[in-house]
């Protein structure tokens, strides 16, 4: 599995399947903006609480998490200094001041046991070779009675109309490439057993479905086109280089995905929001 060299004192880490381009940064921001109401509405922390956001990336979720909880102190960590720099810049531009960013390894956090009142982790476990190990470490730094909120997608939940075997094949390429890099693009369906195996108590998981049709133009643009199809398009070269698909099938698949964004077309995808307590 491919690795990136980390800075001195930080272990090497698996590559992020979607890459670190400016285009990917914008895709993440578009995704967060589109899904903010669906994913963030009920995430509220008590005033004065200490919150760990694990795997904040470029701050795409942080820009919603922090303003929604202005009296909480949030520490947002990531393995990429480049991503952290982008996150700091974005929050500074928005005047958000209740967040501290730190370079950190999710498998070995430099925090004392029982340090945080809440933990928030979103679209991170899917990229980890050992998500259970990460959850064990997150539980270690959570205070007794503290709450973890974990949000993940599940690419296997996707379907569209008109149905297309080629479109499904293109999506399957993304799932396979992520698996080869040590991740799991279908991890959403595993949130309940993962949180349970990590010894969180009172675990609950809620499906958050995104359904898109022509009557929802904001979702057609923000989710179907700028989030999902853009994510699939981003692995084209890898898919072709690995001989997972031929050029003709790929192009037909992408064309059919866009066809499902047109009049009388539909998209459907499910996210999963899991919660658990440290007993």
Report on the structure:
The protein is built from 9 helices and 10 strands. The longest helix is centred in the N-terminal third of the chain and has 19 residues, at 22-40. Residues 1-14 and 16-20 have low confidence and may be disordered. The chain is of the alpha/beta class and 279 residues long. It has one domain: Vaccinia Virus protein VP39 (Rossmann fold), CATH 3.40.50. The strands form 2 sheets. Strands 3, 4, 5, 6, 7, 8, 9 and 10 form an 8-stranded mixed β-sheet that branches. 39% of the residues lie in helices and 24% in strands.
Main β sheet profile: 8 strands, mixed
- How far the N terminus sits from the C terminus, by CA atoms, comes to 36 Å
What is the total domain count? 1
Q: Kindly state the percentage of residues in helix.
A: 25-40%
Number of helices: 9
What's the CATH first level? Alpha Beta
CATH topology: Rossmann fold
Question: Which architecture per CATH?
Answer: 3-Layer(aba) Sandwich
Contiguous low-pLDDT stretches (5 residues minimum) are 1-14, 16-20
Instruction: Write the H/E string, N to C.
Output: EEHEHEHEEHEEHHEHHHE
Q: Which structural class best describes the helix and strand composition?
A: alpha/beta
Please count the beta strands (DSSP E, at least 2 residues each): 10
Q: How much is the radius of gyration in Å?
A: 19 Å
Backbone shape: globular
* Mean pLDDT across all amino acids: 90
CATH superfamily placement: Vaccinia Virus protein VP39
β-sheet strand percentage: 15-25%
């Amino acid at each position: 599995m491919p690795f990136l060299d980390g800075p001195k004192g930080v272990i090497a880490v698996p590559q992020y399947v979607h890459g670190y381009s400016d285009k990917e940064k914008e895709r993440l921001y578009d995704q967060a903006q589109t899904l903010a109401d669906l994913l963030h509405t009920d995430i509220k922390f008590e005033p004065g609480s200490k919150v760990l956001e694990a795997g904040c990336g470029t701050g795409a979720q942080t820009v919603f998490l922090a303003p929604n909880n202005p009296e909480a102190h949030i520490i947002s960590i990531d393995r990429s200094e480049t991503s952290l720099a982008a996150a700091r810049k974005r929050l500074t531009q928005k005047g958000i001041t209740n967040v501290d960013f730190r370079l950190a390894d999710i498998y070995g956090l430099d925090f004392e046991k029982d340090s945080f009142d809440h933990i928030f982790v979103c679209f991170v476990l899917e990229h980890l070779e050992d998500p259970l190990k990460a959850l064990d470490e997150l539980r270690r730094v959570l205070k007794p009675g503290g709450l973890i909120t974990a949000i993940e997608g599940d690419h296997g939940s996707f379907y569209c109309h008109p149905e297309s075997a080629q479109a499904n094949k293109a999506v399957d390429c993304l799932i396979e490439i992520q698996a080869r890099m040590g991740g799991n693009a279908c991890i959403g369906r595993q949130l309940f057993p993962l949180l349970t195996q990590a010894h969180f108590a009172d675990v609950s998981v809620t499906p958050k479905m995104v359904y898109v049709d022509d009557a929802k133009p904001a979702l057609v643009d923000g989710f179907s086109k700028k989030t999902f199809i853009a994510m699939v398009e981003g692995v084209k070269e890898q898919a072709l280089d690995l001989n997972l698909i031929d050029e003709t099938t790929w192009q037909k698949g992408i064309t059919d995905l866009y066809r499902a964004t047109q009049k009388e077309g539909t998209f459907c995808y499910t996210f999963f929001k899991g919660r658990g307590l440290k007993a």
